[in-house]
Amino acid sequence: ETGVTQTPRHLVMGMTNKKSLKCEQHLGHNAMYWYKQSAKKPLELMFVYNFKEQTENNSVPSRFSPECPNSSHLFLHLHTLQPEDSALYLCASSQADGRSNSPLHFGNGTRLTVT
Amino acid sequence: GENVEQHPSTLSVQEGDSAVIKCTYSDSASNYFPWYKQELGKRPQLIIDIRSNVGEKKDQRIAVTLNKTAKHFSLHITETQPEDSAVYFCAVGGSQGNLIFGKGTKLSVKP
Question: Which residue of A25, A39, A51, A72 has the lowest C-beta tally within 10 Å?
Answer without folding.
Answer: A39
